[in-house]
């Protein structure tokens, strides 16, 4: 006979809780630290379509891939989107690797997520983070140059990262 109560107790929170049920510490830990959502995005005036660029927000630490002033970010960057369960459901530009998007879609976290690997470096080793991919920060380039920096990779999963999950 299976002890289902023990199995349920052992299951990690992101498999058993919805985004709405997570406590603040669980919520924050669901971010894998990839930094993809901190890339500047451009919106087409006619279609509203969103395109990523490889330009980082002015507060992005492009090596650590974290915000350099997370507690005060919205005072300094008013259009920084504060993720909540509601915004996660509404945003169509969250990367497919994003921990919030994965849980909202009922999917498991990938092997590189620090909650799974136990190592905050694994998101970089997997090629999922923006480390080494940020061309400039937004205050280092004129606005008219941004359009030359449109990229598609933030909305894709790195192939090698997915292969490793399949083996693992
Ligand atoms: S895309 Fe998701 S997992 Fe990556 S930094 Fe943004 S919130 Fe965190
Ligand atoms: S203010 Fe911080 S959290 Fe917000 S987009 Fe910029 S780097 Fe990311």
From TrEMBL:
It holds the Pfam family CxxCxxCC. It comes from the Bacteria. Signal peptide: none annotated. Belongs to the UPF0260 family. HAMAP family: UPF0260. This is UPF0260 protein GCM10017643_43740. It comes from Ancylobacter dichloromethanicus.
């Amino acid at each position: 006979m299976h002890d289902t109560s023990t199995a349920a107790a052992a299951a990690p929170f992101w498999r058993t809780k919805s985004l709405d049920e997570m406590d603040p510490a669980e919520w924050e830990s669901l971010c894998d630290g990839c930094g993809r959502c901190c890339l500047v995005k451009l919106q087409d005036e006619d279609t509203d379509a969103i395109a990523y660029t490889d330009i980082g927000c002015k507060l992005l630490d492009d090596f650590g891939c974290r915000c350099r002033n997370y507690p005060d970010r919205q005072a300094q960057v008013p259009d920084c989107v504060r993720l909540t369960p509601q915004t996660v459901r509404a945003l169509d530009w969250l990367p497919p690797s994003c921990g919030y998007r994965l849980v909202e879609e009922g999917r498991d976290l990938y092997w590189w997520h620090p909650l799974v690997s136990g190592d905050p470096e694994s998101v970089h080793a997997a090629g999922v983070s923006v480390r080494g991919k940020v061309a400039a920060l937004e205050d280092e380039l004129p606005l008219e140059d941004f359009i030359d920096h449109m990229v598609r990779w933030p909305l894709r999963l790195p192939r090698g990262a997915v292969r490793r999950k399949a083996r693992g």
